[in-house]
Amino acid sequence: MPWDRNQMAARAAQELRDGYYVNLGIGIPTLVANNIPEGMEVTLQSENGMLGIGPFPYDDEVDPDLINAGKQTISQLPQSSYFSSSDSFAMIRGGHIDLTVLGAMEVAENGDIANWMIPGKMIKGMGGAMDLVAGVKKIIVVMEHVSKNGDSKFIPECTLPLTGKNVVDMIVTDLCVFQRPDHQSPFRLVELAPDVTPEQVAENTTAHYLS
User: Fold this and answer.
1) What is the pLDDT confidence band of residue 124, given thresholds at 50, 70 and 90?
2) Does residue 47 carry a catalytic annotation?
C-alpha cells in the first residue's frame, strides 16, 4: 500500500540527525515538523526570518503574526529567534543549513529539480527554492510518484524550468525511496512502501535508476 502524505514526511524525517539545522519547503515537507524523532534536537529555519519553529498550532493557539515562508501559521519555541530575510538567506547561501526537504513537480535522473513554475500558469515567484538547492548541504525531495494525469515525476530529463542542476540527493515518493551517494552516481531504489513491488515502481518511473 502506498504511503500517505504524513508517512512520506515521516520517512523523510528519518534522515534528520541530532543538531541539524533544517529548512522545510511548502506542501508535504511541512509535515516533517510533526515527525521529528523523539529526543532529537533539530532546529527548523524559515526563509522569512525565523530560527526555531515549533509544531503546527491547534486552532485555539493560532497567532496570526507567526507564519512561515509558505504563509502557514506556526508556533514558536522558548529558543526561537527572529531576523531579517537577508540574514536568513545569508544562512542558506553560506552553507549553514544542513538539510532541506522540498516538494517538486519533476526530478530528473541526473538530480535536476523543477519545482517553482509551470509556464503559462500564474506564479508568485521563485521564493527561496533556488538558494536552497544551491546552498544547503543535503537536498531531499518528497513528492507523489506520478502527476494527477498519471505521468511519472521522476523522469529522464526535466521539461519544466529548472530550479537547480544535479542537486537532489534523495527522493521520497508514495511508492518508494531513491537515493544516491554523490552527485556523480545514479539513483538507486533503496526502499519500497508496504506491499509495493519493484515492478510497480518500474511501471510508474521513466527515469533510469539502479535497483
Assistant:
1) low
2) yes
Q: Is the per-residue pLDDT at 120 higher than 70? A: no
Answer yes or no: are the C-beta atoms of 156 and 111 closer than 8 Å.
Answer: no
Q: Which of 47, 61, 109, 157 is catalytic?
A: 47
The residue with cell 504524513 is 6
Lowest average pLDDT, out of 12-16, 51-55, 100-104, goes to 51-55
Q: Convert 157-197 into a string of H (helix), E (strand) and C (coil).
A: CCCCCCCECCCCCEEECCCEEEECCCCCCCCEEEEECCCCC
CATH of domain 5-203: 3.40.1080.10
Claim: this prediction has a pTM higher than 0.70: yes
> Per-residue confidence at 118, pLDDT binned at 50, 70, 90?
confident
List of residues 6+ apart from 87 with CB closer than 8 A: 49
Q: Cα–Cα distance between 170 and 91 in angstroms, integer?
A: 22
Residue spans of the domains in the chain: they are: 5-203
Strands 170-172 and 176-179: antiparallel
Residues 6+ apart with CB under 8 A from 31: 5, 6, 8, 9, 10
- C-beta separation of 51 from 76 below 8 A: no
